[in-house]
Amino acid sequence: MAPIPPASVEELRTTGNQSFRNGQFAEAATLYSRALRMLQEQGSSDPEKESVLYSNRAACHLKDGNCIDCIKDCTSALALVPFSLKPLLRRASAYEALEKYPLAYVDYVTVLQIDDSVTSALEGSSRMTRTLMDSFGPEWRLKLPSIPLVPVSSQKRWECLPLENHKEPSKSKSKGTTSAKSRVPSAGDVERARALKEEGNELVKKGNHKQAIEKYSESLWFSNLESATYSNRALCHLELKQYQEVVKDCTEALRLDRKNVKAFYRRAQAYKALKDFRSSFADIDSLLQIEPRNGPAQKLRQEVNRSLN
After folding, report:
1. What b/e sequence results for 56-92 when a residue is b if at least 16 CB atoms lie within 10 Å of its CB, and e otherwise?
2. What CATH number is given to the structural domain containing 94?
3. SS3 letters for 38-62?
4. Stretch 273-288: mean pLDDT, rounded?
5. For FRET with 110, which of 150, 208, 243, 301 sits at 20 to 30 Å CA-CA?
6. Which residue in 53, 71, 46 sits closest to 13, CA to CA?
């Protein structure tokens, strides 16, 4: 007696899963396709179930080396349920196989924003970083499409926190880095912070100091452990004659790295502008102990010394 064919969406999905586990990827893809058609014909408004079927079929395509259809199905799955881990990872793998490395990098980093413990995403983002640096050099980040900012509600690391702690980064980044200081940055946070810092650096090169401050502030929300980000933001404040902000950022930079020469120099410049010549002289003196032949610092010391006398 012939086996009874699956009669429901759930039965088709379950049978498809079994075929996939048995290595019968084409058969599994056919079953998932039937389940999708049945679901759509029923007019069911169950985006999660539909998204899973697209994602499962994408896994079959990926196993069979059909990366184009894998990407299409993953994109369909993500349109139904944004920031789902499995379709993001499968699409990243397909992009990587097609040598679309910038797109693969974006998907891997997006996964890390959601859950920084995903080993394949950590390895994939590192692999893509090396590949992109080899291909495009130091400015490789300029070749990237925009990296989506994952809403807090989709980030796994916030699941154990009480509701009142679920705050969007955009609400706190303009007010400093208080939120970042209350938690240890994840690997995904550090990678996102690094990308934002590079964006800030590019804006500085173009003279867009106000926009650069926004990028550095956003970077510091994700990770406030890099001294250079503070001293870079201080440079922007210095260009905008916001001297008190320069002092604050340089002080924070020096708390993280007592040998940050740029932070000493920029704070000395700010103190000079604020007519706090003794503090300026002290910073220059500290700088010259680290780099005795620093020409700009020697010149600034002469100017400050004349003001003191």
Report:
1. bbbbbbbbeebbebbbbbbebbbebbebbbbbbbbbb
2. 1.25.40.10
3. HHHHCCCCCHHHHHHHHHHHHHHHH
4. 94
5. 208
6. 53
Pair 84, 206 in one domain: no
Among 111, 127, 143, the domain-final residue is 143
Nearest to 104 by CA among 81, 123, 119: 123
Instruction: Write the DSSP symbol of residue 244.
Output: H
Residue 130's CB is within 10 A of a number of other CB atoms, namely: 11
* Whether this model's pTM surpasses 0.70: no
The 3-state DSSP class for residue 257 equals coil
Q: Give the number of domains in the chain.
A: 2
Taking alpha carbons only, the member of 104, 100, 102, 99 closest to residue 88 is 104
At residue 129, the pLDDT reads 85
How many helices and strands in the chain, by DSSP H and E? Answer: 16, 0
Per-residue tokens: 137: 């050099």
> What are the pLDDT digits (tens) for 42-72?
876 789 999 999 999 999 999 999 999 999 9
Please check whether residue 162 lies inside any domain of the structure: no
The answer to whether the Cα torsion of 174, 197, 252, 182 is positive or negative is: positive
> For a pLDDT cut of 90, what percent of the chain falls above it?
61
3-class secondary structure for 75-105? HHHHHHCCCCHHHHHHHHHHHHHCCCHHHHH
Residue 272, domain extent: 187-308
Per-residue pLDDT, 116: 77
Give exposure, 134-160, as e/b (b: 16+ Cβ within 10 Å).
eeeeeebbeebeebeebbbebbebbee
